[in-house]
Amino acid sequence: MMEETGTIDIKTINEKIEKESAFVDLLMLEMNKVIVGQKGMVERLLIGLLGQGHILLEGVPGLAKTLAINTLSQAVDGSFSRIQFTPDLLPADVVGTLIYNIKENDFSIKKGPIFANFVLADEINRAPAKVQSALLEAMQEKQVTIGDETFILDKPFLVMATQNPVEQEGTYPLPEAQVDRFMLKTVIDYPKIDEEQLIIRANLKGGFEKVNPVVSIQQILTAQKVVREVYMDEKIEKYILDIIFATRYPEKYKLADLKPLISFGASPRGSINLAVAAKCYAFIKRRGYVIPEDVRAVVYDVLRHRIGITYEAEAENVTSVDIINKIVNEIEVP
């Protein structure tokens, strides 16, 4: 399917990717010391990190969401901070503020917890829109303005926001335009019974093994550049575009029955993130080219929060995942 294409030498790219992605196995091993099961979540975290994106995790409390990003920051030699979102949180509590210094009769800047490589925004939907937008500006621009000074955030910069399923009391749902800033939205489920047995044992034993830094920040920054070199054939690009356009104009893809169920389709950010996430997935699987399976592996996480559903869909209990399912099953695989 994918031999040498014009000037692109797949073999060379493949060898380079294999060499550069060697640390992925080390990182996975290190994280697995603490995170039992949840392979999907760990892979998605790596995709977010390599693709320079951010992740929104949804799941009931107690599924190791906080633990996962903390473990990742220990395994990568990076800084970690956690912000607990509450209804009375202010934007200054996230980005930082100006403090008046009596001795020097001047204002000094106190940086907030957003200044870290790995930021966990815990229960993001418990804080009002003002705070959410302060965080999202930092995510999009990778910079923060305090007073009249602008600070560029450290690289890599990964925000993992968690939210409990929205039905719960006292939550402010994230506006669609802001949810779009997240590269992936991953829904986590309970562990399997044998995994939970291991979790109980590890906890009763008195904690987990110590996580060692196995990857440097520099290696991650190099990998972020190399990921972009993963080869993507034009056929795969067309496949991605067909999936995205089917969310906007389903009737053109023999999916007219979806038209009344979709209020809006995926934005261009959706197609960019689907391409980047597919390349990252290929990289994690230590391959130098993208195959259709890579796209299918990440399509739900990239699109589940980018498709708006109508009241009609809600009345019929149709979710965005059902819509993606139909689209992926209908569109021809290259």
Descriptive notes:
- By secondary structure, the chain is of the alpha/beta class.
- The chain folds into 2 domains: 23-86 and 113-226, P-loop containing nucleotide triphosphate hydrolases (Rossmann fold); 230-334, Magnesium chelatase subunit I, C-Terminal domain (Helicase, Ruva Protein, domain 3), CATH 1.10.8.80.
- The chain has helices spanning 10-20, 22-32, 39-50, 65-75, 91-95, 129-141, 176-179, 193-204, 217-227, 234-248, 268-284, 292-303, 311-315, 320-330; strands at 55-58, 80-84, 96-101, 106-111, 118-122, 143-146, 149-152, 158-163, 184-187, 262-264, 308-309.
- It has a 5-stranded parallel β-sheet with strand order 2-5-8-1-9.
- Helix 3 crosses helix 11 (268-284), helix 10 crosses helix 11 (268-284) and helix 11 packs across helix 12.
- The longest helix is centred in the last third of the chain and has 17 residues, at 268-284.
- The termini are close together.
- Mean pLDDT is 84; it is low at 1-6.
Write the layout of secondary structure elements.
Elements: H1 10-20, H2 22-32, H3 39-50, E1 55-58, H4 65-75, E2 80-84, H5 91-95, E3 96-101, E4 106-111, E5 118-122, H6 129-141, E6 143-146, E7 149-152, E8 158-163, H7 176-179, E9 184-187, H8 193-204, H9 217-227, H10 234-248, E10 262-264, H11 268-284, H12 292-303, E11 308-309, H13 311-315, H14 320-330
